[in-house]
Amino acid sequence: MISALLHDDPHTAGPFRLLARLGGGGMGTVYLARSADGRTVAVKTLHTRLASDTTLRTRFRLETDAARVMGSQHGAAVVDADPQAPTPWMATEYVLGPPLDTAVEVGGPLPEPVVRALGASLAAGLAQLHRSEVVHRDLKPSNVLVTAQGPRIIDFGIARAFGDEHLTSVGSAVGTPAFMSPEQAAGLEHAAAGDVFALAGVLVFAATGVAPFGGGAPTDLLYRVRYSEPDVGGVPLSLRPLLLSCLAKDPAQRPSTAELRSALGGAEGAPGEGGFAELLPDAVLREISRRGDEVWRELPHRMPPPAPTQAPRTEVASASGASRRRLLAVAGGALLGGGLLGGGGWALFSDSGGGDTPKKDAVDRPKPPAPLWSAGLWCPESGGEVMPVGRNLALRAGIVLCGINAESGASTWQANIAETWRSTTDGTRIYALRGFTEQAPLAVCEVSQTDGRPGKPLVELSAYAGMEQYSQLLCVADDIAYLVARAASGKGWYLVAADLRTGKERWRSPVDGPRSQGFPAVLCGGVAGSTVVLYGSPDSGSKFLHLSVHDKGSGRRLWELSETFAGTPPTRLVADDHNLYLGAESLTARRLSDGKLAWLFGNGRESGDSSDEQRRYGAPLLQDGVVYCVAADRGLLSVDAASGTLNWQEKGHSGQKDLRDVAPAVGRRYAYCADDKGVRAVDLQAHQAVWTYEAKPVVLTADPKGGRLYVRQEKRTAALPLA
């Protein structure tokens, strides 16, 4: 649908003047545009903030190449493109016709002759693509345009060459769950037969108005695609055997595109010129005509910048640095997943995940406990902590936020919130910023723990840009939401306190904006005592971590400094009412009141073999007045939080390399830490390890009330009994 340009949309792309918006998403925007000689085109651009990402630029270039291969007979012909431009763009002919899902919505399920002609033409288009050794990988109703001349295949954003895994992590699922092939849902190779499976799903939808594996949660869909039989009860009887053969779980049992095209009754697809239009229902023809008229009507004027209720002070953001994708990237290739210009997200699940089955230990050592449950939930590299919410859990999996039953590990709801920095919990409720693609003010919503949908805004902040992807929801404490947000006018960024009870802003304080494209301004932050603490994002390659502390009541900055820090910067706050604790070359406690050191531990202590490879002291954990962390490769140590004196250090630790970026977890009997062999349980009385659970942990989280230790690996999450 055509909508007005936003105030900050570009005016041109190459030689084309942008007129209106046709669609958009997390990766880019599609515009209606015209050339100087009056030719109307659709222009797709990559977001400027993503243009520095070489992987996304490569993907955009490959999408352009795939669109050229498809051409005008079965796709939208490429008129011009510049993938190397500062903002990459591609212009294609403007296709007059609705997406197939819209056509079915306005005209109802299509008659059998239309389904046959539609399928034959689409099979011919896929055959043309496959002859160039390219697979589409995301064929679905919204990527098929219905025109008077026949269907057109669009959106090659995740297409790739046969066998090319360079842009897709092996073992990760990309695409749209309802129309995925079983092999694609399992993270395996999706070849030409996978496109045939998806095409059959599209034809079932065209004939019935429902996908062959129904709807619902993406995780349920992925399971049904892999293990359940498709529902073709509403498909005409003469088409059922053919479509069922295309929907076979085994790719080898599916027909080729040529066989499918022949069986549907078309050598080249749709009937001769004018024939396809004669088959279409009147309602679909009216929709095609309406879209044609819409292009030549007076287009909507560009929207003005939203006026803030109170003009914020201008604050110039610091210069952008190079990308640090490894720090805050969403795990499992989520930002590169399918349908980012029109499709939704889903949790990435995997049946194969290393190391959840412990090997037998020596006879004289206790065995690690068996997992209470284990689930194939992909863990992001940061923000992967398991968050108790009431009696259940919330955690980030792939590109979604998931609700998990703490007893069974089963997924109970999912929220399509790709960015880890846009959601939080207060332990009882879950909150998230409203989607940044909406043309509305910045808002904080409560996320339903039934279906994952955001509720009505608890607070709307019209002074801040709702379209800004890198706005952050740091935390919610005592019904006050603390955010980092960009002003709706100007380039200033602010730390903001918003009262969820009154729906009003309490205060704001200027802060630095994002320093590197692709990531938010702040690594983490939260309330500590009477202050709000921010860990600032260093530039790429920097060995400094920026800290700033603000008064919780007024937002006034109390102090700031840069701390030497090697390795992956922290993404969770470790503090009490008095001090902020950090593990780097030393273990330090810094006073919240003035930023001065309360104590420093570790100078001159012996280091392990890998002390020169990374920082000496790992991410700390504060519990019951004690700071726990690993010290180089000398094992776990316990330090009194008030004085900085050593309580004890692990005995008999040798041969393992401790993982500094994984903070310990503590139960009643054991403390748990991570090394290159797995999760080590250290007896709190004997101060030595008693067993190791074989795993490659990314995050450890203890839930003393629930009696569980959560071990998050890249592809799996397990719950162990917490002792």
General description of the model:
- The structure is a single chain.
- The chain is globular and about 85 Å long.
- The chain contains eleven helices and 41 strands.
- It has 723 residues and is of the alpha+beta class.
- The strands form eleven sheets. Strands 1-2-3-4-6-5 form a six-stranded antiparallel beta sheet, with helices on one face.
In short:
The chain has 723 residues and is an alpha+beta fold.
Task: Summarize this structure as a short list of keywords or feature phrases.
Lipocalin; Transferase(Phosphotransferase), domain 1; globular; single chain; 723 residues; 16% helix; Phosphorylase Kinase, domain 1; 11 helices; four-stranded antiparallel sheet; 3 domains; alpha+beta
What is CATH's topology name of the largest domain? Lipocalin
Helix vs. strand class: alpha+beta
The proportion of strand residues reads 25-35%
Which runs of at least 5 residues are low in confidence (pLDDT < 50)? 159-173, 267-274, 309-363
Mean pLDDT: 82
Write down how many β-strands occur, each being a DSSP E stretch of 2 or more residues. 41
Question: Which sequence of strands runs across the widest sheet?
Answer: 1-2-3-4-6-5
Number of helices: 11
Helix content: 10-25%
Distance between the termini: 57 Å
Task: From the alpha carbons, calculate the radius of gyration and give it in angstroms.
Answer: 28 Å
> Architecture of the largest domain, according to CATH?
Beta Barrel
CATH class type of the largest domain: Mainly Beta
From the spread of the alpha carbons, the general shape counts as: globular
